[in-house]
Amino acid sequence: MFAPAPFLLTSSGCGRHYCAVNDAALPPADPSPADAPSVYAKFDTELHVRPDDIDMYQHVHSSRYMDYVLAARFDQMERCYQMPMAEFQKRGYGWFMAATQMNFKRPLGLGDRFVVRTWIEKFTLIGVKVQFQILRQPDQQLSCDGWFDYVMISIETARAVRLPADIRAKYEI
To answer: Which homologous superfamily is 39-171 in?
Structure first.
């Protein structure tokens, strides 16, 4: 039977629609090593608020925080993990955001500089849970924190695939 989540976008002749992941079709998971860290390396990317990020309340619109985390992850995939998004695409893989939680603490305003700190909290058979913090500079005040659950998909089928061992090894730092 299909699992209730995560749901993935798939292509069909009549446009885009949601399709449940069939966990039974995935190979069994390898047992996790007992010495696997519970938190992996944390990486920082510094960004700044742009004029088009500001909403009618004169602070950063909530949707932009997702953009900031995504921009930081793309930077960190290349700079820190040495595996940019283009390499995933060459191998026929992509990442789908299955779920997110964002906790807004303090607003960011026009011209503010901030650091997006991200780290992998855990691996799953088909993806990762990434934690994040957005820290206003220079005072290091927490502006937003939360997590994203990402699922690896085959670009060809738009279905979840098992996380390859070599990719997991690159990201287990």
So the answer is: Hotdog Thioesterase (3.10.129.10)
